[in-house]
Specification:
Layout lengths: L1 H5 L8 H15 L1 H11 L11 H23 L5 E3 L3 H15 L5 H22 L2 H7 L2 H23 L2 E4 L3 E4 L6 H18 L5 H19 L8 H4 L23 H4 L5 H26 L10 H18 L4 E3 L3 H6 L5 H14 L3 H8 L2 H16 L10 H17 L2 H18 L8 H17 L4
Antiparallel strand pairs: 1-4, 2-3
Length: about 450
């Protein structure tokens, strides 16, 4: 039966190879199970967003399992999906503040509505076949700058969450010199283990770094009696009495998105950014992993429509369940290296996400302490930042808008604002330099909408 569904012989693979590849992919991306609820609930930042940690945990695993299963059974690719890094930070630091600034008290419900609508739009684009037109609208340099800028933003937040970078009234930020504090010890151990394993190309390096940091935190909690009472180790970290249990209820976030609020004028720029982020994440991952696996035919991806549909359905379902945008994971390349070539790899990952639901006490323990998850943010951020090397730095009309995006995102502490700087500057610079025909009409329209948004709407918020 598996042979007939996944055509294992034609793809020169076996059931055993596909299952091992699925396990490998899951290990490389399992960190999102700990990070996602910590981000959306605000536990990672010492604040409360209103979203339930447990409900987001369940929504994350369910949406990842559903989208990955669709990818495996419908598109038949060895590519796993889950709520994306970058999109989750945009949700917290851009979508929710935009909703709150527009006067909505239920900001996270409105943000979920924006995710849901972006998923619907992505599904429509996938079904009607206009993906190429949208993809070609934004120049490659801007696409690479978006990924790099979000990477810098994520890494910066990770360093802040760990307590290594502190706020300073004189210089805005400064380095924390107290390297022997318990919070920084946990962070440094996790960072060193993760970086060393990643450098040695060890599969699951981020997950193993989280495990190492957790063990150190547990040891310090029990044996370091002189830890400062204001340290996060003392205030937020509590060792759980059990590792497994029933999945948390999804009721606090299930079908709580506010579609009416999301369709307001103030939220449309947010919806567009969500759409672009999932679109280009999906394109980059599908092409990169498929090329590595030798699945491209004449440079094109067979069953591309099915693959896009799985992302779109995952995003729609994720918003309904209570989590941010679902996208394809580049970590799927680890499973491909292990020999995964068919959708059976993805189905294996989907099953493992469902099994992870029964370890919610462990997930809550790890996610409650930012020093444990911060190394994952720094490492993921560093990997995303390498996209800056792909920017066309020799063409100033491409390099300068990309530069504004790259620095604008972390410096403004807003992905949306950083993107707006580049999206406005790019067509204006091309036009003023006599190269206006190089820019697609959609970018001129988008720049005009963004200028109008900042001048007439955002300035009044």
């Amino acid at each position: 039966m598996l042979q007939r569904i996944f055509q294992l012989q034609e793809n020169r693979t076996t059931v055993r190879t596909e299952i091992l590849a699925g396990l490998t992919t899951f290990l490389t991306m399992a960190y999102i199970i700990f990070v996602q609820p910590a981000v959306l609930s605000g536990a990672m930042f010492g604040m409360k967003t209103g979203m339930s940690f447990g409900a987001v945990t369940t929504a994350t695993c369910l949406s990842a399992a559903l989208a990955t299963a669709i990818m495996g059974l419908y598109a038949r690719y060895p590519i796993a999906q889950a709520p994306g890094m970058g999109q989750n930070f945009f949700f917290i630091f851009s979508a929710m503040p935009a909703a709150a600034a527009a006067g909505f008290a239920n900001s996270w419900q409105v943000a979920l509505g924006a995710v849901f609508i972006s998923g619907i739009l992505f599904l429509i684009l996938s079904l009607v076949g206009v993906r190429g037109a949208v993809m070609n609208a934004i120049s490659p340099s801007l696409q690479h700058a978006i990924a790099a800028g979000i990477g810098a933003f994520i890494a910066f937040i990770g360093l802040q969450n760990a307590g290594l970078i502190l706020k300073d009234p004189g210089t805005a930020v400064k380095l924390n010199p107290h390297f022997a504090s318990p919070d920084l010890i946990v962070f440094f151990v996790g960072l060193l283990v993760t970086a060393a394993l990643y450098a040695r190309k060890t599969r699951g390096s981020i997950l193993f770094g989280i495990i190492a940091a957790t063990l150190v935190a547990m040891g310090l909690k029990y044996f370091w009696k002189g830890a400062p009472p204001d340290s996060n180790l003392i205030k937020h970290f509590a060792v759980t009495g059990k590792l497994a249990g029933l999945p948390p209820s999804i009721e606090p976030t299930f079908l709580k998105m506010d579609l009416h609020g999301a369709l307001s004028m103030a939220m449309w720029p947010v919806i567009i950014v969500f759409l672009f982020m999932v679109f280009f994440d999906t394109v980059g991952t599908l092409v990169g992993v498929s090329e590595q696996a030798g699945l491209l035919e004449n440079g094109k991806l067979p069953r591309a429509r099915q693959a896009f549909v799985s992302d779109a359905v995952g995003t729609i379902a994720g918003a309904a369940l209570g989590t941010s945008t679902v996208t394809s994971y580049i970590e799927s390349a680890a499973g491909v290296e292990q020999g995964g070539r068919t959708g059976l790899t993805s189905v294996t990952v989907a099953i493992l996400f469902l099994l992870a639901l029964f370890f919610s006490p462990l997930i809550a323990m790890v996610g409650s302490y930012a020093s444990i998850t911060a190394p994952a943010l720094v490492i993921v951020g560093s990997m995303m930042l390498r996209n800056a090397a792909k920017i066309d730095w020799d063409d100033f009309t491409e390099a300068f808008p990309a530069f504004l995006v790259l620095l604008g995102i972390p410096f403004s502490f807003s992905i949306a604002d950083g993107l707006a700087l580049g999206f406005i500057a790019h067509p204006l610079l091309k036009l003023s330099s006599g190269r206006g025909k190089e820019v697609r009409w959609f970018m001129y329209l988008l720049a005009a909408l963004l200028v109008t948004y900042f001048a007439l709407i955002r300035a009044r918020m």
